[in-house]
């Protein structure tokens, strides 16, 4: 409900500037669930000055209640409000939620039975709330068709919370639809949490290998975004103990996290753009804003949450504009990696403006617009990571240029030394001849010889000095080479650790052995980490298996495999139909990579997926540019061709995925594979292995055990490749039913 309040003080500032309440906008986030058609009647309210009445004593004051339609909302301060209203449903009998946004304390009573229905409120402990659903003030009720129910509710605001309600409005939602929408929003928040955590740990390992302090501030930004991705809707509160007092400190935590995020961004900008060296004026302004963000938390610590929130809003707007100015200045000055930084900030602005327009009603509310700021922030963090990596590459290139310059200087010095030696030899020979020819002039030429010897001595000293310089530069070159080797070893260690992380997402052997009688997996990554991966999941008594070939190799391919694994794990919970799985996966990949919005990422994946239904004794196959090869027990073979379209990419043509249902037969072998094996160059003529030869190899070994087949395939691949280089990741998944 308060999704933008911590992540983006900038949005809060602009909405305040345009005379809109930030938290009214945040309420629109939760209202994406359609409100019910309950009829609200006879809405009356009473201001309990001094908070002297309870449920028993307020019954005698119903005559003093005022109609809500005839009076504006009063200035209540710390006074509690009693509101009386009727609800009637013309639909079938149903269960509903009533939401009272932003109130610190809420108690709902049924006047028909004179009983309390439930408690809630943003300052109410979780153990005292009737329904715990993030930070939403919900109380459940049940209505019968055509029956009007009378309710009384006690409402109380608090200055210790950042928002004071601006009216007495409340909303009703069907419980089933609300729970369904809330589950979807929760999963989306956890998905973005996963994205931020992946970026955090990946760049943490890069920081360890490079020791660049810019990564410290970047990790601070990503760490705070990771917390706020589940904090804003209250999901983090649900992880706390039920009696935790932190629930009542939500507003204070919001202001502190907002200031920490702003400080982290400014420190990152200051370090990335090297303001200390190249722009002292902007560096001083940055330090002033950072100091202000620290001071703005002081009223918050003394209970003045609203004051701190307003000051934080103004500083958020200032920070927003200030960072934008620095980004444009650096780009115009062609500062290294400034284009990545500016592009990242443009994505953030796009998400911010989308959310702003949705909040003020210029565009309709949807999941896309509700989560637009999280989408923009996740893309921003990825591009910030690219910008930092690009800086490292530039520094590496500068080191290589310096090494080349040293080598050139060494060559010039060597040529100079040879030239001086030759000139010296010529002069000595000339002087010796003159001495022999002019013995009679010995006395006269003694002075000339002394002068010549002095010149020779000076030249020798110069040569000695140049030799020392050459040796010193040679030592510098040797130290530079050692430093480069050490950094390469650090990067290699990080990639090896990434391999362990990737292996952790693969299905465990014990799980495969438990569900499949016989199977084998031949997995030979081209690099340390792979763009190919295999996937397995058992759900609703059905077994789902997949072989996936992602775009690229190494680290880029491994990132794609992580995205594919996360999406498949979520999709299988919704459907076990292979072709629906491929449609959902295609939509997920295009969504995550922003390909529907015209991004420059054309990445995707080819895969084959099989769903085994043992109860129906069927295997359902569907493929995207990846076939299924079947060999029966009597040696009969059959190749199931895939759909000629990939998952993801910029292809705007309509994609059609069709499944094939295959009856299970005893002793039949099934093979799913990527194209790495058949595309491998080798053999006597250094040609590709080709798909026909590959299928014949599978057919020839189909009668053996699965482990023997894996060994035969591995030997065939290594013999064919010989001493050549492996050109692609290799993955073959065989199983026998």
Automatic annotation (TrEMBL):
GO terms for molecular function: phosphatase activity. Residues 385-490 form a coiled coil. The keyword DNA damage does not apply. It comes from the Bacteria. InterPro entries: 7TMR_DISM_rcpt_extracell_dom1 (IPR011623), Bact_Sigma-Reg (IPR052016), PPM-type-like_dom_sf (IPR036457), PPM-type_phosphatase-like_dom (IPR001932). Keywords: Coiled coil, Hydrolase, Membrane, Transmembrane, Transmembrane helix. Residues 513-737 form the PPM-type phosphatase domain. The chain crosses the membrane at residues 188-208, 215-231, 251-269, 281-299, 305-328, 340-361. This is Serine phosphatase RsbU (Regulator of sigma subunit). It comes from Sediminitomix flava.
